[in-house]
Amino acid sequence: MPDSKTMHLAFDLSYLHLEGRWRAPGSWTGAQFPDLRLLGEIASIAERGCIDMLFFGDGVGIPSTYRGSRDEAVRWGIGWPRQDMSPYIAALAQQTRHVGFGLTYSSTFMHPFYTARLLNSLDHITGGRIAFNVVTSTRQADAANYGFDELMEHGQRYARMIEFVDVCKALWSSVEPDAMIWNRATGQVADPTKVHAIDHEGPFFKVKGPLASAPSPQGHPVLIQAGGSPAGIRASAHFADLVFGGGGSLERLKAHRSSLDEALIAEGRDPTEVGILWSVPVVVEETEAEAHRRHQRSAEALGIEAYGVYLSHNLGYDLSTIPERFTLRELQATISATGASPVGLMQFARGIPEDEPLDRRDFIAHCRDSRKDAMFVGSAAQVADRLEEIFEATGERGGFMLSSLTAAPRDVLNIVDFLVPELQRRGRFQTRYGEGTLRQRLVK
Question: How many CB atoms lie within 10 A of CB 326?
């Protein structure tokens, strides 16, 4: 098993072509989304740097929250276009040997039998390198594509998620690891006593089972969950092998770790066996001055109007409808009443006093600037210092999801060539891949 003092690193590739990143210097050189060749180049660079996982978030709707229209999202590339990354992962697995792949599907809309079968197949194709990021969906544009007139209530979404994962896990276990025989002499394919129906009947799903597939290398994928609300943390404690944690102050991260530990104990699980990958947006260069220069350029990729479209989509609430003057407390209550997650708002609006009167344009500008301020910008040594500080303060369990890459493959190269060697010199990151599946390398 990996040393508990060594952090894991993953690249969040969910936004490489979105929100203006596609046109940044050093980004998508000689290619346009969704060209597989660029992702293949990134995968090869990541494997050279012993990166643990390439992570793909997802959304299935063109954002239409802002002013009730998709036009501005289409115009500026906000949250779209996106592809289903499962066939891309199947292709990338053929040109890599070690790096893992995180794939996202929504338990709010998907069916567990289809999802379990698909991920089983991908686990075979990748040789046991699949992680499943289970999400609930908070966006009306996504819901509309699955026939929902409105968002499912917050608590219901998490109740459905827990049942969804329980069904998936039962299906993955419905064919025992040694069930397959493939005896050429007798013609017997499998032992029927090791293939079981699951006979699940619950509030959301009715599934007979078993999964009509051979057991996969990992048994089931590494399960990732990112909920930061109390319901989300309880869901993480119930089933997650690895937790995807949001950003924020060090005290906020420590509080998340503490809340998760309490929830894991309540579930009868050992907190030392569940790590958190903290989402950290980074810009790394050879010098601090060069890093800040590139960071400033990336921060200006979206204007205020375009950022309002982006923010509305991510909050699930049309910010064009808010009054010219309001308070954060009032806005939080309004957004919560629609069924959208209040956690997202607080992540964007960090630093704003709850009862301070706000102007709409200034509010959007503050949210944009607060995301810039959350980035780790500097030389390899400076960024490594901050990563070590968080890693130590949160119990040295897990690591980091390096996100908001400004330009790809440029930022991927910089991380692998500058940051990774610095962390390796400090004994904080692996110098080679361990043996076995992604689960064996990431999960205790």
Answer: 15
Q: Phi and psi for 271 in degrees, rounded to 5?
A: -60, -25
Instruction: Please give the C-alpha separations between residue 416 and each of 5, 173, 282, 399, 423, in angstroms, as whole numbers.
Output: 20, 37, 12, 16, 10
Q: What percentage of the chain exceeds 90 in pLDDT?
A: 68
DSSP state of 300: T
The DSSP line for 47-82 is: HHTT--EEEE----S----GGG-SHHHHHHTSS---
Q: Are the C-beta atoms of 299 and 373 separated by less than 8 Å? A: no
Is 69 exposed, middle or buried (CB count within 10 Å of its CB: 0-12, 13-18, 19+)? middle
Q: Which residues, 6 or more positions from 83, have their beta carbon under 8 angstroms from its beta carbon?
A: 34
What is the distance between the alpha carbons of residues 124 and 216, in angstroms, rounded to a whole number?
Answer: 6
Per-residue pLDDT at 120: 98
Q: Is the pTM of this model over 0.85?
A: yes
Residue with tokens 């990134």, as numbered in its chain: 42
CA 257 to chain centre: 17
Name the phi and psi angles at 10, rounded to 5. -130, 155
H helix intervals, 138-207: 140-144, 154-172
Q: Residue 53's pLDDT is what?
A: 98
Condensed to tens digits (0 to 9), the pLDDT of residues 305-343 reads: 888 898 888 787 888 888 889 998 888 888 888 766 666
The neighbour count for residue 207, using CB atoms within 10 Å, is: 21
d(CA 334, CA 317): 9
- Taking the C-alpha atoms of residue 404 and residue 13, their distance in angstroms, rounded to an integer, is 8
Asked if 27 and 410 touch (Cβ cutoff 8 Å), the reply is yes
How many C-beta neighbours within 10 Å does residue 102 have? 30
In this predicted model, what pLDDT tens digit does every residue of 156-188 receive, in sequence order?
999 999 999 999 999 999 999 999 999 999 999
